[in-house]
From TrEMBL:
Record Pfam families: Cytochrome_P460
Tagged with keyword Signal: yes
High-level lineage: Bacteria, Pseudomonadati, Pseudomonadota, Alphaproteobacteria, Hyphomicrobiales
Keyword Signal belongs to the record: yes
Ranges where the Cytochrome P460 domain occurs: 35-148
Keywords (A to Z) from UniProt: Signal
Name assigned to this protein: Cytochrome P460 domain-containing protein
CDD domains per UniProt: cyt_P460_fam (cd20716)
Highest taxon of the lineage: Bacteria
Naturally occurring in which organism (per UniProt): Neorhizobium huautlense
Signal peptide start and end residues: 1-27
Entry-linked InterPro entries: Cytochrome_P460, Cytochrome_P460_sp
Amino acid sequence: MFASKFSLSIATAAVIAGGFAAWQAWAANDRVQFPEGYENGIHYATVNRGGIREEIFTSPEAVAAAKAGQPLPDGTIIMMEDHRSGGLHRYVVMEKRAGWGDAYPENFRAGDWEFREFAPDRTPNIREDGQRCMSCHQSQAGQDFVFTLDRMRSAN
Ligand code: HEC
């Protein structure tokens, strides 16, 4: 009786551990921290789409690399403020770190970038696992997965 209960719980633990590992491999996108002080970087673009106004920021190092036609450096963070109906709706952030992409299958990763959404109070949205972000930004693989790379190149 004891033995069968014991082996059942081992089996359950193995299934849970396996499920957790698979979830981590496919849907982590939880390593990006809120980039406090981002507004001291370079505000390189404003994009207006319908009722949405987006303000986009990155580091001077990233802008320099974009202008030089180099890949964006390791550690690059791009912040996009998403304003709707006159108020801040959310923040979306992408961050590039060497090796981060290894956690994802080849056809799924967006280079070494991870993506994360934050609420206006700067806490992460834990319901957003970043898969949509990655798959849409994959279309920009030819320009380091960044839609607004041209805007970065022409930043002042
Ligand atoms: C359906 C496509 C799509 C999805 C999904 C998407 N994005 Fe984007 N993203 C864009 C486009 C297009 C832009 C360029 C700005 C614009 O046109 O609004 C952009 C711009 C950005 C930028 C500024 C840098 C750049 O690439 O220009 C960041 C940061 C960003 N997105 C993060 C995210 C995050 C985080 C998520 C998921 C929560 C996400 N995106 C989901 C299409 C997408």
